[in-house]
Q: What sequence folds into this?
């Protein structure tokens, strides 16, 4: 079975002592949490300098993001789109690519979903939704695969090309939404024709959070399994680790690059479908909200680990949710949240250098 | 700046006690509804509150209602037109106890405001933009202004000021509202000198500072000597005009501070009128007015004070037209009117007054405008 090949290779070192695996896990939790604490202290200092009581600020951040059922749903809802767009960075990153074009895949995926949804009105909702999701994933995937293909066949830097492709995607999106696909009824806010209430994706049972969250978590789980427990994932990581070694080993590097880009793009495309089918009901300029860019941040903080993407997205969502409360209660500008985000992410990234350096978390034989 | 704790403060308590005292003194009938707490009003902006444009115009009104006794205002800026704004509205209601919301961006309405209005039937949602219609929730409504009146006045002043007879317009998107402003501005200018032309550049989106600066520069290079605009923040266009030594008419809010030499006048929103009406309706327990709309006459829009460069003749002419508008006697769009391809768009003898719904679907540029929809 696929997993039996990859598993020992990936875990060989850690399995030597049973306690060492636990230490590793503890390290990967303790370092980011410690970094967060440091970041909060720094932010508190900044707040104190602007004349606010840091304790008030902390209390509000907690209340706004995590202090109640309402706050949690607020946070999770904001996190949902980021989970999927973060995967657009995290998956190609397994093969050593830095792709930052998720925004383009998202808007084109959303556009495709809106077109399919409108065409499928009258079909059974489930079939139409699956059709929308698959089309959006295909379009988003193909878009990012373009960047992968440019990389592999023409040697174009994928970071730059995926960013530039985003501008092209948005221009195409605007052209279609304001031109050939425009609903003539949408006078002052050009939109495509609505997909109709019947095809809308609803909320998770018992929550005020749409299904996008579940899609994202499921997608992350699948990606985690793919990356860590399959031959394909193993091959991807070899390409990411050393392309020449991968070539020597006979891996089809080009194909692997394209697959990782396609999968990443399809996650962002699905995010676009969710925006259309769960939120807007049609494709319009509101889709261009920067989720693709926020996803870059999330993926980097999560160290491109598909499972870690979920808690990081929740953290970003929570900061967004509490940012609102900070603005409303303390009359702070929106930029305050950016300062908090900036401090938090700088500290978390700086703390990366601590991995393997803290004695407490080292395997036993190295500690003597 | 206020240092309020999230929970009830002593000040709130004293206020409530004082109000209760007054209440018993006057009898319960008079103040019963407003007690025990302030009316909490939430205002939501899509951009920064100090953008010298669309958002600032709203924030100025919010700052004024903040001073009304018994009103507490909570604000959130830079809220995108996604589920974020739904969550912001819900947070204001659930966490702050807001009973009246002003979600000010045009794109907030469908689906976000409608959805929240259905979910919170006791809260009122006053949306800027004129999208409410019969059949939508009764606790939601629209307010909007006929700002093309002020753009017409901009055009009159620009027409008097221009030497090259070439005017410029930096616009976001070719949608009816924007086209109406471009046309009104051009008609105003042509009322002064019939051979004036207006060159239009569409930037493609509401906030594109770099493109807006490039557009302004390119217009100036073509010989344009007065520019106006319809973008979310006119800041860069106004500053570019000041720097390049030509004249500018503002939009949304007063930008004269950015261009003391170049600023002629401007088309400003006067949102305090609908804001006051909505807040008062809540305080007095009146049902919500779902569709508020007006121009100069009703106090929904106002021109900026004239700049130094505006001639005596221009002031007199513009003031005369303004007086007529304020009486409701002036019609901007009337036949015979041709578009810039030579097609008659309003037949001779037809008048399309401000409330005419045909104007909401405007899809042409009038004769004299250089540009394409």
A:
């Amino acid at each position: 079975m696929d997993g039996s090949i990859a598993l020992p290779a990936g875990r060989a070192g850690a399995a030597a002592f049973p306690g060492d695996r636990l230490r590793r896990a503890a390290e990967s939790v303790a370092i980011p949490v410690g970094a967060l604490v440091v970041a909060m202290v720094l932010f508190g200092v900044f707040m104190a300098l602007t004349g606010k009581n840091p304790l008030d600020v902390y209390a509000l951040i907690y209340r706004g993001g995590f202090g109640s059922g309402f706050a949690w749903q607020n946070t999770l809802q904001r996190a949902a789109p980021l989970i999927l767009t973060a995967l657009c960075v995290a998956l190609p990153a397994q093969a050593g690519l830095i792709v930052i074009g998720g925004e383009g895949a998202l808007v084109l995926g959303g556009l495709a979903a809106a077109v399919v949804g409108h065409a499928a009105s009258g079909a059974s909702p489930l079939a139409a939704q699956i059709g929308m999701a698959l089309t959006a994933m295909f379009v988003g995937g193909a878009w990012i695969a373009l960047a992968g293909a440019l990389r592999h066949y023409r040697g174009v830097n994928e970071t730059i090309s995926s960013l530039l492709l985003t501008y092209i995607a948005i221009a195409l999106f605007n052209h279609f939404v304001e031109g050939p696909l425009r609903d003539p009824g949408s006078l002052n806010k050009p939109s495509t024709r609505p997909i109709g209430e019947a095809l809308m994706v609803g909320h998770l049972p018992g929550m005020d959070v749409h299904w996008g969250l579940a899609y994202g978590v499921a997608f992350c789980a699948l990606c985690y399994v793919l990356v860590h427990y399959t031959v394909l994932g193993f091959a991807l990581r070899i390409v990411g680790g050393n392309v020449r070694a991968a070539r020597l080993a006979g891996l089809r590097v080009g194909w692997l690059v394209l697959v990782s880009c396609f999968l990443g793009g399809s996650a962002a495309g699905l995010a676009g479908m969710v925006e259309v089918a769960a939120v807007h009901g049609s494709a319009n300029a509101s889709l261009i909200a920067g989720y693709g860019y926020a996803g870059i941040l999330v993926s980097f903080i999560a160290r491109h680990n598909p499972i870690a993407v979920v808690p990081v997205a929740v953290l970003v969502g929570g900061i967004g949710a509490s940012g609102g409360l900070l603005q409303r209660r303390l009359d702070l500008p929106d930029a305050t949240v950016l300062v908090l985000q900036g401090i938090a992410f700088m500290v978390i990234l700086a703390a990366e250098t601590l991995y393997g350096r803290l004695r407490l978390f080292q395997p036993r034989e190295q500690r003597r | 700046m206020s240092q309020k704790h999230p929970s009830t403060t002593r000040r709130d308590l004293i206020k409530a006690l004082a109000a209760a005292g007054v209440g018993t003194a006057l009898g319960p009938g008079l103040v019963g509804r407003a007690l025990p707490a302030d009316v909490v009003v939430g205002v939501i902006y899509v951009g920064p509150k100090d953008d010298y444009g669309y958002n600032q115009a709203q924030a100025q009104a919010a700052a004024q209602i903040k001073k009304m006794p018994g009103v507490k205002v909570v604000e959130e800026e830079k809220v995108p037109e996604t589920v974020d704004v739904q969550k912001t509205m819900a947070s204001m209601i659930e966490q702050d106890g807001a009973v009246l919301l002003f979600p000010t961006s045009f794109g907030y309405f469908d689906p976000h405001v409608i959805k929240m209005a259905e979910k919170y039937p006791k809260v009122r949602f006053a949306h800027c933009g004129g999208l409410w219609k019969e059949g939508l929730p009764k606790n939601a409504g629209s307010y909007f202004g006929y700002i093309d009146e002020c753009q017409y006045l901009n055009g009159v002043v620009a027409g008097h000021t221009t030497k090259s007879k070439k005017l410029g317009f930096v616009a976001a998107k070719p949608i009816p509202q924007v086209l109406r402003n471009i046309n009104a501005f051009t008609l105003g200018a042509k009322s002064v000198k019939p051979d004036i032309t207006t060159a239009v550049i569409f930037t493609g989106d509401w906030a594109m500072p770099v493109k807006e600066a490039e557009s302004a520069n390119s217009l100036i290079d073509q010989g344009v000597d007065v520019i106006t605009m319809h973008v979310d923040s006119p800041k860069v266009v106004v500053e570019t005009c000041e720097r390049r030594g030509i004249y500018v008419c503002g939009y949304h809010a007063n930008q004269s501070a950015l261009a003391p030499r170049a600023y002629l006048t401007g088309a400003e929103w006067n949102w305090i009128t609908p804001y006051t009406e909505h807040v008062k309706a809540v305080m007095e327990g009146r049902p919500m007015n779902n569709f508020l709309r007006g121009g100069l006459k009703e106090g929904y829009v106002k021109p900026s004070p004239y700049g130094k460069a505006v001639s005596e003749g221009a002031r007199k002419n513009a003031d005369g037209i303004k007086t007529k508008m304020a009486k409701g006697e002036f019609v901007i769009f009337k036949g015979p009117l041709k578009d810039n391809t030579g097609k008659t768009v309003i037949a001779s003898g037809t008048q399309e007054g401000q409330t005419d719904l045909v104007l909401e679907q405007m899809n042409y540029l009038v004769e004299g405008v250089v540009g394409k929809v």
